[in-house]
């Protein structure tokens, strides 16, 4: 599941809207919406993100959050490690191999570490 998909599901459930109804309202197939929520589709288009924002009548910070989550929700990432150090390339490969076995708490710890790095 992608961050965008998780948020859509939370919004749907908070409004008691089922996937089939939301798909019909957005003029997409239920299969597409399900795949989008579960991360089996690519990153949502800008137009789709705007439709979701309008659908849930989101404004300001909530709309910005949806846009940010969409940017973070590409289910198949390609990392260009050319020109990086051998250690960086090894890290990218290690993460690719082990990401599925990391616990949620370990992922959160690693994410926090990377977030702190951005602030430096």
Task: Jot down its keywords.
2 domains; 0% strand; 434 Repressor (Amino-terminal Domain); mainly alpha
Summary?
The protein has about 120 residues and is an all-alpha fold. It contains seven helices and no strands. It has two domains: about 70 residues, 434 Repressor (Amino-terminal Domain); about 35 residues.
Write the layout of secondary structure elements.
Layout: H1 3-14, H2 19-26, H3 30-38, H4 46-55, H5 60-71, H6 86-98, H7 104-119
Helix pairs in contact: 1-5, 2-3, 4-5
* Tally of separate domains: 2
Report the top-level CATH class of the largest domain.
Answer: Mainly Alpha
Tally of helical segments: 7
Q: Shape from CA axes?
A: elongated
- Low-pLDDT residue spans: none
What oligomeric state best describes the polypeptide chains here?
Answer: single chain
How many individual β-strands? 0
Largest sheet: none
SSE order, one letter for each helix or strand? HHHHHHH
Strand content: under 5%
CATH names the topology of the largest domain as 434 Repressor (Amino-terminal Domain)
Radius of gyration: 17 Å
Portion of residues within helices:
55-70%
Cα separation of the termini = 30 Å
Looking at CATH, the homologous superfamily of the largest domain is lambda repressor-like DNA-binding domains
| CATH second-level architecture of the largest domain | Orthogonal Bundle
């Amino acid at each position: 599941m992608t961050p965008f998909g998780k948020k859509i599901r939370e919004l749907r459930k908070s409004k008691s809207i089922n996937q089939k109804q939301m798909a019909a309202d957005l003029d997409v197939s239920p299969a597409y919406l399900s795949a989008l929520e579960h991360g089996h589709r690519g990153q949502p288009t800008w137009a789709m993100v705007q439709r979701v924002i309008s659908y849930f009548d989101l404004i300001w910070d909530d709309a910005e959050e949806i846009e940010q989550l969409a940017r973070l929700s590409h289910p198949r990432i390609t990392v260009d490690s050319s020109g990086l150090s051998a250690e960086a390339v090894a890290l990218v490969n290690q993460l690719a191999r082990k990401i599925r076995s990391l616990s949620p708490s370990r992922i959160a710890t690693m994410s926090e570490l990377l977030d702190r790095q951005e602030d430096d």
